[in-house]
Amino acid sequence: MGVATLDDVGRIALSLPEAAEQPLHGLRSWRVRDKLFVWERPLRRSDLRALGEAAPAGPILGARVEHLLAKEALIADDPEVFFTTPHFDGYPAVLIRLDTIPLRELEEVVVEAWLARAPKRLARQYIETHFPAGERERGE
Q1: For the chain, what is the radius of gyration of the CA atoms?
Q2: Cα–Cα distances in angstroms (integers) from residue 4 to residues 27, 59, 80, in the given order
Q3: Where are the domains of the chain?
Q4: For 71-84, what is each residue's pLDDT tens digit?
Q5: Given 1, 39, 64, 71, which is the most exposed site by the fewest CB atoms within 10 A?
Q6: Model-wide pTM > 0.85
Q7: Distances (CA, A) of 19 to 24, 33, 50, 55, 94
Q8: DSSP labels, the chain
Q9: How confident is the model at residue 100 (pLDDT cuts 50, 70, 90)?
C-alpha cells in the first residue's frame, strides 16, 4: 500500500458534496460551504520547538474533528499518525502524518472532518445515502 499524499486528500475531499479546494496562505485546503475541514499544515517554528525531536519531517494534514473528545481519542489510539501542538490546544482539530496513514483511514478522517463542518441537512443527506440504517451512530 502506498503512502497517502495531498493529491489523495484532494481526491477524497472533492468527492464529497459541495466541497471545494481553496488556497490558504499559499497551501492547499478544502472547504464545505466556505468552512475549512482539511488543510495542508506544515509545522511552524513554534510547533518544532514544542515537539522537539518528536517533530515529524513529512507532509502534515490538519483535519477538523467533531469535538475535543474525538481529537483525544484519535491521538490516544494512534499517536504514530495523529498528533497535536500547543497551537491547537482547545481546538477540535488533529494533525496527521500523511506518510504514515493508510488510505482507507485517511478517507474516514476526511469524511469525518467534512461531516463535522457541513451544514446539518447536507451531512444528514450524506449519512442517509452512504450509511445504511444502523451502520453508523452519530449524535445530531
Answers
A1: 15
A2: 17, 9, 14
A3: 6-130
A4: 999 999 999 999 99
A5: 1
A6: yes
A7: 15, 7, 33, 30, 20
A8: -PPP-HHHHHHHHHTSTTEEE--BTTB-EEEETTEEEEEE-PPPHHHHHHHGGG---S-EEEEE-SSHHHHHHHHHH-TTTEE--GGGTTSSEEEEEGGGS-HHHHHHHHHHHHHHHS-HHHHHHHHHHHS-TTS-----
A9: very high
